[in-house]
Amino acid sequence: MSQKEILNTDKAPAAIGPYNQAIKADKTLYVSGQIPLIPETMELITTGVADEAHQVLKNVEAILKNAGYGFEDVVKTSIFLSSMDYFATVNEVYASYFKDNQPARECVAVKTLPKEVNVEISVIAWKA
């Protein structure tokens, strides 16, 4: 029988709306979009898009680890940017986390993101 499990950790920012950090359904983990909030203080990183991208991916990593997954288990990412001008910078940071066996992904520019951030990333992970 299929199981659905809600997962949250204090090592990543608390949800800022009516959602959870992650949902595990059978072997698949769905991680909600993460923005550059510091988990301990819920303050935003505002020192540049590279720093934002690193914080976002640290938050994703904390949620993955909490569920027993790692970046190597990610099969799909969705990257949202406030401007495609940030693509190269975010791509460079992203590549430092996804070194081998990179997942499928899309990267789109959107008009605005929560709290006026420049980067938001969600992932889907799978483990046999």
From TrEMBL:
InterPro entries xref list: RidA, RutC-like_sf, YjgF/YER057c/UK114
Coiled coil (residue ranges): none
Signal peptide, first to last residue: none
A Pfam family of this chain: Ribonuc_L-PSP
A GO cellular-component term linked to this record: cytosol
CDD domains assigned: YjgF_YER057c_UK114_family (cd00448)
Protein family (similarity comment): Belongs to the RutC family.
Record-given protein name: RidA family protein
Native source species: Sphingobacterium humi
